Inverse folding.
C-alpha cells in the first residue's frame, strides 16, 4: 500500500478504498471479539431484568391512571383506562390539595429534606475525612459505631427517640434535621471514608505548604474532590427523607407540622372510609418531585461508586 494518506484525517473525509477495507475488517474483528466475550446468559438476564423493571413500574402507572378516575370506579375497575364517566380530569387533585393542605406539607417536606441533606453532607464529609487522616482509637471506634448504626433496627430506638426529641423540643421542621443527621450519618460516613482513603495525601500537604489551615484545606481542596460521593449521598438521603413517614410521625408536632406522607394519611375518614381518588392524586404529586430529582441525578450514583473504588 503505497498510496498517499493525509497526516490529519477529519470527520467526513473519505479514506482510500484499501484503507477503508482495513478499517472495516478491524471493526468486524472487534465486534466479533466483543460478542465472543459476552456471557451466554446475557440475553436471559436482559429478559429477567426487563420483567422486574415492568413489575416495579406497573404500580406507579396504576396510581397515575386511577388518579383521574371517580372514587367509585377505582375499586371496581382499577386496571381500566379512565374514559367516559370514569374520567374526572383534575378534580381529584383539586380536592386532595384542599383537604390536606398540600402546599404547607410540601413546604415542610422541602425544608426537612434539603436542610437534612445539607447538614448530613457537611458534617459527615468532615467526619469521614478526619477518620481517614487521624489514626487513633477514638476515630476507629467512631467509624465502627457509625457502621454499626446501619444494622440497628429502627424499632429498637423508637420509644427512646420520641421521648428524647420531645424533651429537647425537636418537634419542628428544624429540630428534626438533627434527628435525621443521627440516623443518616452511618451510611454517609461509611461512603465518605471509602472515598477519602483514595485522596493522595500529597495534595493536602501541598495546600498546607501554600498556607492553608485545616478548614481552608477542607473547603478548597478536599470537598471539591469529594463531590462525586457527596452527590451520591445527597441522592440516597434525599430519597429516604422525602418518602419517610415513621420518623416524622414520631418526632413532629402533627397539630402544627405535617410532611406529605403524613398529610396523605388524613384522607382516611371514619369507619375505614378512604377518598381513593384524592389519595391517588396526592400520591402522584408526592412521588413526582423525587422521580424527577432521581432521573436527573442517577448518573452521579455510578460516578460516585466508581470514583470511590479507584485508588488515587
Amino acid at each position: 500500500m503505497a498510496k498517499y494518506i493525509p497526516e490529519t484525517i477529519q470527520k467526513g473525509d473519505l479514506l482510500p478504498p484499501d484503507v477503508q477495507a482495513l478499517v472495516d475488517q478491524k471493526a468486524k474483528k472487534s465486534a466479533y471479539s466483543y460478542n465472543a466475550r459476552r456471557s451466554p446468559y446475557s440475553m436471559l438476564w436482559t429478559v429477567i431484568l426487563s420483567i422486574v423493571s415492568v413489575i416495579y413500574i406497573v404500580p406507579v402507572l396504576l396510581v397515575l391512571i386511577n388518579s383521574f378516575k371517580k372514587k367509585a370506579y377505582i375499586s371496581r375497575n382499577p386496571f381500566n383506562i379512565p374514559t367516559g364517566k370514569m374520567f374526572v380530569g383534575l378534580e381529584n387533585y383539586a380536592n386532595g390539595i384542599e383537604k390536606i393542605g398540600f402546599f404547607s406539607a410540601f413546604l415542610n417536606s422541602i425544608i426537612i429534606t434539603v436542610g437534612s441533606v445539607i447538614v448530613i453532607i457537611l458534617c459527615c464529609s468532615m467526619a469521614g475525612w478526619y477518620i481517614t487522616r487521624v489514626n487513633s482509637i477514638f476515630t476507629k471506634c467512631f467509624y465502627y459505631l457509625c457502621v454499626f448504626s446501619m444494622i440497628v433496627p429502627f424499632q429498637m430506638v423508637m420509644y427512646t427517640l420520641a421521648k428524647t426529641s420531645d424533651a429537647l423540643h425537636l418537634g419542628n421542621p428544624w429540630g428534626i434535621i438533627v434527628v435525621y443527621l443521627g440516623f443518616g450519618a452511618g451510611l454517609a460516613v461509611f461512603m465518605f471514608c471509602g472515598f477519602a482513603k483514595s485522596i493522595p495525601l500529597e495534595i493536602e500537604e501541598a495546600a498546607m505548604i501554600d498556607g492553608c489551615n485545616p478548614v481552608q484545606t477542607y473547603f478548597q481542596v478536599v470537598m471539591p474532590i469529594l463531590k462525586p460521593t457527596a452527590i451520591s449521598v445527597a441522592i440516597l438521603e434525599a430519597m429516604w427523607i422525602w418518602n419517610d413517614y415513621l420518623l416524622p410521625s414520631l418526632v413532629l408536632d402533627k397539630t402544627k407540622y405535617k410532611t406529605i406522607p403524613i398529610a396523605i394519611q388524613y384522607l382516611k375518614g371514619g369507619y375505614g372510609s378512604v377518598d381513593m381518588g384524592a389519595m391517588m392524586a396526592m400520591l402522584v404529586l408526592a412521588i413526582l418531585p423525587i422521580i424527577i430529582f432521581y432521573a436527573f441525578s442517577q448518573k452521579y450514583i455510578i460516578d460516585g461508586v466508581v470514583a470511590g473504588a479507584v485508588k488515587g
